[in-house]
Amino acid sequence: MNLEKPIRVLVAGLGNMGRSHALAYHNNPGFEIVGLVNRSTPALEPELQGYTVHRDVMTALAELKPDLCSINTYSDSHADYAVAAFEAGCHVFVEKPLATTVADAECVVAAAKTAGKKLAIGYILRHHPSWVKLIEEARKLGPPYVFRMNLNQQSSGPTWATHKSLMRTTSPIVDCGVHYVDVMCQITDARAVEVRGMGLRLSDEIAPDMYNYGHLQVLFEDGSVGWYEAGWGPMISETAFFVKDVMSPKGAVSIVMDPNAKSDNIDTHTKTSVIRLHTAETGPDGKFIRPDQDMRMTGEPGHQALCDLEQAFMLRAIREDLNLDRHMADAVASLRICLAADESVRTGQPVRL
Questions:
Q1: Confidence of residue 137 (pLDDT cuts 50, 70, 90)
Q2: Environment class of 175 (CB within 10 Å of its CB; exposed 0-12, middle 13-18, buried 19+)
Q3: What residues are paired with 248 via a beta bridge?
Q4: What is the DSSP letter of 206?
Q5: How far is CA 169 from the centre of its chain?
Q6: Could you tell me what percent of the chain has a pLDDT over 70?
Q7: The GFO/IDH/MocA-like oxidoreductase domain covers which part of the protein (predicted)?
Q8: Nearest 5°: phi and psi at 15?
Q9: Tell me, what's the pLDDT at 41?
Q10: Cis amide linkage into residue 97, ω under 30° from 0
Q11: Which residues pair with 215 in a beta bridge?
């Protein structure tokens, strides 16, 4: 492939994330959008209105022969579309979660390796300078860790409609949990050994076997423990909806959220405001030696800028032939933990990994 030639990309799925990724491709001269795919006719940003919207991914792959297929559809179609794209000779970007079962996720990774193509998964926090800093500071503290994380969203109107659509296939602790479990796994290199989960259906508007509030606990081989909580819907409380906190014997590192932030604002999900570093060390008098250090994260990228960074990474991965083995393995590992939590919710039993 001529490295100067734009990567021809087909964008499948035009929900919130799909449109954001499409804008990232549109605005990056390294890409050329050859088509968009959506089953219905979506309301598109002015920049995207000039592109043809196809109805079927498989047909568009065959007709357009893109270099890259960007998959931003509902979770239950990710694996089938990704494997088809690899078989059609494409690189693949796929939104998280990679699949809805571990076996399907492993099939996608195997297909990428067989095809000799790049597979990048939409872990947006991996491209966020503040989250990179949080992980770096936590790793300096050293294990064992306590991870305390949540992202609850009090949603109504169109946001609640989106959440209900997502819950046709995926619970909140899987859909959102893969992000934050991935952060835990980047901080501790230890293997997860046991997962526990609990959940509750708080709305008659979702299927009887689905739950819109969930909580998972994960135990790691090095003694680290963590929890993640996610709830979606009009009944969800905005009190303490955003907790991102890591503790170890040497201290703690935390994200301190703007007290006026709203849980259904998509930029709130990634903006960190302040990272606070607390050191546990005390002097002869038993008092702390140094005060907490607040690192202000000024000039943070917003949601669209983060999508731009993700696709710049995708471009680099293709052009510079980056090794994505760890990236793919981590995506499967975080999915395995979150799906084990979902199994635990449904069976009432802990799951040994």
A1: very high
A2: buried
A3: 251
A4: S
A5: 16
A6: 95
A7: 137-232
A8: -80, -160
A9: 86
A10: yes
A11: 198, 229
Asked, as a colleague might, if the bond just before 144 is cis with ω within 30 of 0, I would say yes
User: CA 60, CA 8: separation in Å to the nearest integer?
Assistant: 13
Residue 142's contacts (CB-CB under 8 Å, 6 or more residues apart) are 248, 249, 250
Q: Render pLDDT for 332-350 as a digit per residue (tens, 0 to 9).
A: 999 999 999 999 999 999 9
Element holding 30 (H helix, E strand): none
- The encoded tokens of residue 323 equal 């090794």
Return d(Cα 293, Cα 320) in angstroms, integer: 38
**For residue 254, what are the β-bridge partners?**
245, 276
Pairing of strands 53-54, 31-37: parallel
Residue 298 Rama label (left phi>0; alpha psi -120 to 50; beta): beta
State the pairing for strand pair 146-151/242-248. antiparallel
| Residue matched to tokens 């003694």 | 223
Least confident of 103-107, 300-304, 324-328: 300-304
Instruction: Provide long-range contacts, Cβ within 8 A and 24+ apart, for 198-207.
Output: 198/344, 198/345, 199/171, 199/173, 199/342, 199/345, 202/231, 202/233, 202/235, 202/236, 203/233, 203/234, 203/235, 205/164, 206/164, 206/167, 207/167, 207/168
Residue 17 · residue 72 · CB < 8 Å: yes
Residues in a beta bridge with 78: none
For 309, the 3-state DSSP assignment is helix
How confident is the model over 86-134, as pLDDT tens digits?
Answer: 999 999 999 999 999 999 999 999 999 999 999 999 999 999 988 999 9
